[in-house]
Design goal:
CATH topology: L-arginine/glycine Amidinotransferase, Chain A
Distance between the termini: 43 Å
CATH superfamily: L-arginine/glycine Amidinotransferase, Chain A
Number of domains: 1
Radius of gyration: 21 Å
Strand content: 15-25%
Order of helices and strands: EEEHEEEHEEEHEEEHEHEEHEHE
CATH class: Alpha Beta
Strand order of the largest sheet: 4-3-17
Keywords: Hydrolase
Structural class: alpha/beta
Number of strands: 17
Protein name: N-dimethylarginine dimethylaminohydrolase
Organism: Saccharothrix australiensis
CATH architecture: 5-stranded Propeller
Helix content: 10-25%
Largest sheet: 3 strands, mixed
GO molecular function: arginine deiminase activity
Length: 292
């Protein structure tokens, strides 16, 4: 902040004006999301570092937190579609992992873990039943929006733990968008969507230590003004966030990240999703965006 002043009679300063750094006006856009209620949520196995089958789990609490997330989207003016949960698929709540939709074209998922493999076909059938004519199921392992993040210009594509790097070229062919590969190196951040999210066109937030040196350099070149998350933001899955261009849905613990995005003109909206985090998920994991 700076001020401009002159000396008045008696040498008293006269303040002519105060200038502050310009904060962009952020405008939300209405989104459409696909979600799945966690009616069968539990932690029966461990396929990521967050999962511990010996910890107690409350399906009732998980459902209450998921409902609050859904109602938050609806309160902000977004439309939420719901797919029916299937018994025996406790991670189906994490709908982001089961499809990538850009301009009405759908690239389905192929899970690395056998415990989740059946989810992909349930989502495929939902797409076909809801008017999507171009639905391609992948040949290579890809965990959809878990590792594919659309910026509006590029498809950022993570690899290292789940998605096959050859799935990146497959995504480019199916979706017809340019793909930029990013290497993940920390097993706690096994999907791209727990290490990075898009705030608005040409602006992202990410945790550098989740990426290889070359990927960090690429992100700096592409997004020099990015919001940089710290270790505490990452550890509460703060980067598993959802932005509509103004409102940023964050876990309640991600206060530092919330303060940072607020300084950029966004409005942080905090939700408690702690029960679902016991399976390694946050707001974004529960939210597939339908970009028609």
């Amino acid at each position: 902040m700076t001020s401009v002043s002159l000396l008045g009679p008696g040498d008293e300063p006269i303040v002519l004006g105060v200038t502050t750094p310009e904060v962009p006006v952020r405008v939300p856009t209405t989104r459409r999301y696909l979600m799945c209620p966690p009616e069968h949520f539990t932690v029966e196995y461990a396929i990521n570092p967050w999962m511990d089958p010996t910890r107690p789990i409350s399906t009732e609490l998980a459902l209450a937190q998921w409902t609050e997330l859904k109602e938050t989207y609806e309160r902000l003016g977004h439309r939420v579609e719901v797919i029916e949960p299937v018994p025996g698929l406790p991670d189906m709540v994490f709908s982001a992992n089961s499809g990538t939709v850009i301009e009405g074209r759908v690239l389905g998922a192929r899970f690395r873990a056998e415990q989740r493999a059946a989810e992909a076909d349930h989502f495929r059938r939902w797409f076909l039943a809801n008017g999507y004519s171009t639905v391609v199921m992948p040949e290579r392992t890809n965990e959809a929006e878990g590792d594919f993040t659309w910026t509006g210009k590029y498809l950022l594509a993570g690899t290292g733990f789940r998605t096959d790097p050859l799935a990146h070229s497959e995504a480019q062919e199916v979706l017809g968008v340019p793909v930029i590969s990013l290497q993940l190196v920390d097993p706690r951040y096994y999907h791209l969507d727990v290490a990075l999210f898009v705030l608005a066109d040409d602006l992202i937030a990410y945790y550098p230590d989740a990426f290889s040196p070359g990927s960090r350099q690429a992100l700096r070149r592409l997004f020099p003004d990015a919001v940089i998350a710290n270790a505490e933001d990452a550890a509460c899955l703060g980067l598993n966030a959802v932005s509509d261009g103004r409102h940023v849905i964050l876990p309640v613990e991600a206060t530092n990240l919330g303060e940072q995005v607020a300084r950029r003109g966004f409005e942080p909206v905090y939700v408690d999703i702690s029960e679902l985090r016991k399976s390694g998920g946050g707001p974004k994991c529960c939210t597939m965006e339908l970009r028609d």
